[in-house]
């Protein structure tokens, strides 16, 4: 099938590449000429495991190419995916200007039947806005070409995007157009062994499903974080509690890890956007209001521990920091908890030496010229002379360090661990003062 993907970011690039992998003829468009140039020259503008090799393979096979030419890309695909950003507006609602601009470009150039697929995360009712924008553009040209609008939200997780796309739990397709339904069903058939995993529904329910999923997961994490904070005070161990509740199949083990609050490009903005949608319709989502508040507080949980230990004046203190990305296996720094933690430490007079396996370049871009913040290219290189080690992201390379060496490098054998990487008993044995999340701290 001939496919166009409008927007070649995390979602668009993965979507286009994975669709090419199963034999489709894919054109990926972006308005960012720099991004397209990198892709045309064989580079990949983002870090996503497995993506580079898959892009190379499909480009060589002639099934995948990249362009900034809107007309060419609209001409190309019978199916036109819209995978542009939907960042938060000033009031937290989803800003649809990129989605509407993409829809307008399609309307401006399309000749013949097209299926226009919203893959971006968009509020309920956006399908109607996309349809209206296309009709307006067609009318300006005196055209009456027929088309279908489909909602096909994306559920991939960064860091596991290829795996998630190639082997999805489910594929949600919202449409009331039979031709579009058949085309979308055939397109996704190779991705599911069991066709029950393709869930057809109306457009509005599909749009709502995406927000409902992210809001549910964000709620789960925030509640777990609150249970961790309580466990810590009550002398319980959240790691044991996690296993104890996860074994109930109604709860399950996944997505039950307490930490420094959820970040990334989706949960924070999608929780807010759903709240705004509800408010616009006179409904208050009280649980979600609490989730947002709890997550905001959780981003400071490590800082609170640091202040309790060192006092509020951190002048002259130096911290080693492991992990900048909002989670492992990505270079994405959008809403990363590390940014809140670093900002606090610097504002209170401390200096920070940070390491992350892949996101130092992104960190430099989003925190340009931050005085007192330096970067090193290995975990051990940030340690010398530090008053404490602060762990923010659970990269695998941080999980089994040479504790003797860590201790020898640090000024104080002191670790604030926002991801519970180590067993407190082991840390005690190794001679560390250790502050995990929701577990008993080791003060020696
Ligand atoms: P991104 O910022 O990485 O990529 C969006 C791209 O769209 C950018 O490269 C931008 O230049 C391009 N663009 C903007 N307007 C354009 C236009 N008119 N024509 C062509 N290109 C245009 O964003 P992302 O993380 O890929 O997210 C895209 C959408 O998918 C969002 O709605 C997001 O909520 C949703 N989503 C993201 C993830 C994720 O893990 N990142 C997962 C599921 C859903
Ligand atoms: C999320 C959704 O999972 C995905 O389905 C959607 O398509 C996009 O948004 P992503 O943001 O890439 O994916 O990462 P995810 O693995 O969901 O983690 C989100 C945040 O929650 C991260 O900050 C992570 O550290 C945090 N998290 C996750 C926890 O704190 N504990 C957990 O148990 C799981």
From TrEMBL:
The active site is at residue 266. The keyword NAD applies. It catalyses: UDP-alpha-D-glucose + 2 NAD(+) + H2O = UDP-alpha-D-glucuronate + 2 NADH + 3 H(+). Substrate binds at residues 155-158, 210, 255-259, 263, 327. Pfam families: UDPG_MGDP_dh, UDPG_MGDP_dh_C, UDPG_MGDP_dh_N. GO terms for biological process: polysaccharide biosynthetic process; UDP-glucuronate biosynthetic process. Keywords: NAD, Oxidoreductase. It comes from Iodobacter ciconiae. Residues 320-424 form the UDP-glucose/GDP-mannose dehydrogenase C-terminal domain. NAD(+) binds at residues 30, 35, 86, 121, 158, 269, 334. This is UDP-glucose 6-dehydrogenase. GO terms for molecular function: NAD binding; UDP-glucose 6-dehydrogenase activity. NCBIfam families: NDP-sugDHase (TIGR03026). Pathway: Nucleotide-sugar biosynthesis; UDP-alpha-D-glucuronate biosynthesis; UDP-alpha-D-glucuronate from UDP-alpha-D-glucose: step 1/1.
């Amino acid at each position: 099938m001939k496919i166009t993907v409008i927007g070649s970011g995390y979602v668009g690039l993965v979507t286009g590449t994975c669709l090419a992998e199963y034999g489709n003829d894919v054109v990926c468009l972006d308005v960012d000429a720099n991004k397209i140039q990198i892709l045309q020259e064989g580079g990949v503008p983002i870090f996503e495991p497995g993506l580079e090799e898959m892009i190379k393979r499909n480009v060589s096979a002639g099934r995948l190419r990249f362009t900034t030419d809107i007309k060419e890309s609209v001409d190309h695909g019978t199916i036109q995916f819209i995978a542009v950003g939907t960042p938060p507006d000033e009031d937290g609602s989803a800003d649809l200007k990129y989605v509407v601009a993409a829809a307008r470009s399609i309307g401006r150039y399309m000749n013949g039947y097209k299926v226009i697929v919203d893959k971006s995360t968009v509020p309920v009712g956006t399908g109607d806005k996309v349809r209206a924008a296309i009709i307006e553009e067609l009318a300006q040209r005196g055209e009456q070409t027929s088309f279908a609008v489909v909602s096909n939200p994306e559920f991939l997780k960064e860091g596991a995007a290829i795996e998630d796309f190639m082997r999805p739990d489910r594929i949600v397709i919202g449409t009331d157009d039979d031709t579009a339904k058949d085309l979308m069903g055939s397109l996704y058939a190779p991705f599911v062994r069991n066709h029950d995993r393709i869930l057809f529904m109306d457009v509005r329910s599909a749009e709502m499903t995406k927000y409902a999923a992210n809001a549910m997961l964000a709620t789960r994490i925030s509640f777990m974080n609150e249970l961790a904070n309580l466990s810590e005070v009550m002398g319980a161990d959240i790691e044991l509690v996690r296993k104890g509740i996860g074994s109930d199949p109604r709860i399950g083990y996944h997505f039950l890890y307490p930490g420094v609050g959820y970040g990334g490009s989706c949960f924070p903005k999608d929780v807010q956007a759903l709240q705004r949608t509800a408010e616009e319709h006179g409904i208050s989502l009280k649980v979600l209001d609490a989730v947002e508040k709890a997550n905001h507080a959780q981003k400071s949980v490590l800082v609170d521990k640091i202040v309790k230990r060192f006092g509020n004046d951190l002048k002259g203190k130096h911290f080693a920091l492991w992990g900048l990305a909002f989670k492992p296996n990505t270079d994405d720094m959008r809403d990363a908890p590390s940014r809140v933690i670093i900002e606090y430490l610097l504002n209170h007079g401390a200096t920070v030496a940070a390491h992350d396996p892949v996101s130092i370049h992104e960190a430099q871009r989003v925190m340009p010229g931050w005085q007192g913040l330096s970067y090193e290219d290995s975990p051990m290189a940030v340690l010398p002379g530090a008053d404490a080690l602060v762990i923010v992201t659970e990269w695998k390379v941080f999980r089994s360090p040479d504790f003797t060496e860590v201790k020898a490098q640090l000024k104080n054998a002191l670790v604030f661990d926002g991801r519970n990487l180590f067993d407190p008993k082991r840390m005690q044995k190794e001679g560390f003062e250790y502050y995990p999340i929701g577990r008993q701290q080791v003060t020696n």
